[in-house]
Amino acid sequence: MPHVIPHFSALASSYDVFLCDVWGVVHNGEVSFPDACDALMRARAQGKVVVFITNAPRPGVSVIRQIDKLHVPREAYDGIVSSGDVTRDVIVHRKGQSICHIGPERDLPIFKDLPVTFAPLETADYVVCSGLYDDETEKPEDYRARLDIALKRKLFMVCGNPDLVVERGSQLVYCAGSIADLYATMGGEVLYAGKPYRPIYDLALAKAEAALGRKVDMKRVIGIGDSVRTDLKGARAFGIDMLFVAAGIHAEEFGGRDTPKADAMKTVFAAAGDEPTAVMKHLVW
């Protein structure tokens, strides 16, 4: 079982760069978490660099506008990298190919200023999935018929948000990763643009080193997040330490948002085949 710590300040001095998840750590989709924002601002005041690394299926600049509305201070971070940024890179490299977009209208900024041609599943060259059309009423299984069409045509899918679920207030809603996983189990080819895959970490580290003005020792880099599947596995695969925030999407599995149980956490981490460097209930300085 990893070390459970009450205060972020206990480990902050051991690192120069923090690659921090956003949704579930800094806000819940409805409100920001003042203690988490304060902790990150205090770290930056000590000369540390904080780069937000998020599976949001929109460009980083769009995510900044979103978290501005949630009152996440810009003083809490140096930069942001999103799975939307990685998705845009894929689209650029597939220039001239038509896209079937599966996802809500709010994700359309992912295509902004790109030479994109949209087409239905029956004629598109590949699929970009950024989420469910209506994540408050739909489930991944509702997309099976569409995915059957894509599979018969052997369409390649880019998953713009590898998260399976995310908290919105006190509710869990499905994300693009749930559709992509279903397509993959059906036999479809999927590229996951965000965490836990390396491309988004490479972009985030490059942004952090630019802010620092120098190369950084990987031992002085730590990931922060609340998801075993994306944050823990992503950080470990990238070769960095990881601080796990227990009061996130695994809160109920851990025994409750305010009272995570050590045995329950141990079970979840054992099932994942890995464990974080340290655990906190909430991110607090």
Task: Report a brief summary of the structure.
This protein is of the alpha/beta class. Helix content is 33%, strand content 20%. It contains nine helices and 14 strands.
Keywords:
285 residues, alpha/beta, seven-stranded parallel beta sheet, 9 helices
Total number of beta strands: 14
- Amount of helix: 25-40%
- Alpha-carbon distance between the two ends: 22 Å
SSE sequence, one letter per element: EHEHEHEHEEEHEEEHEHEHEHE
Helical region count? Answer: 9
Low-confidence stretches: none
| Largest sheet data | 7 strands, parallel
Question: Could you tell me the radius of gyration in angstroms?
Answer: 19 Å
Shape: globular
Provide the residue-averaged pLDDT. Answer: 94
Spatially, the strands of the biggest sheet line up as 1-14-13-12-2-3-4
Report strand %.
15-25%
Structural category is alpha/beta
